[in-house]
Amino acid sequence: MKNGSLSFYDQTYHEELLAFYLPLEQEQFTALPVDALRKCNEDPGRYPIVITDISGKAVGFFVLHEGENIRDYTSNTNAMVIRALSINQVEQGKGYAKEAMLQLPEFVSKNFPEINELILSVNFKNETAKKVYEKAGFEDRGQIKHGPAGPQYVMHYDIKKQ
């Protein structure tokens, strides 16, 4: 990533992630990193990922989720769901989310070679996020899922294997 990179979560990022702030209108669509990390501790199929800037500071966060608990999205056993993507408010608007999604297929291919599809859901009311995902190559294939804040588009990205 030209402005940073993707890394698996470790304790060195904990304080920065704890300090994340999201406005209330964004909190309805995603989880704060500290809450998402709690769920990762309860489910071995969840992998917390940190988005860092060029200096290595945590600016964003999301979870890659695989296993039986994603079957309400897909029957593809080689798929992963992206959950709880957030960019700390002070870092928003700098392209980190789009950069992370552009780099994610390569990151997943390297670290999870069996995975051939990425899936995420985005609330109907969150058009800004939907546009970011579309620019990164995710497709709306007409699948709709009901989420806690209303209906969601389910978006797919097929990972091409070399």
Automatic annotation (TrEMBL):
PROSITE patterns: GNAT (PS51186)
Cross-referenced SUPFAM superfamilies: Acyl-CoA N-acyltransferases (Nat)
Pfam families: Acetyltransf_1 (PF00583)
Transmembrane segments: none
Stretches assigned to the N-acetyltransferase domain: 6-160
Name used for this protein in its record: RimJ/RimL family protein N-acetyltransferase
The organism of origin for this protein: Fictibacillus barbaricus
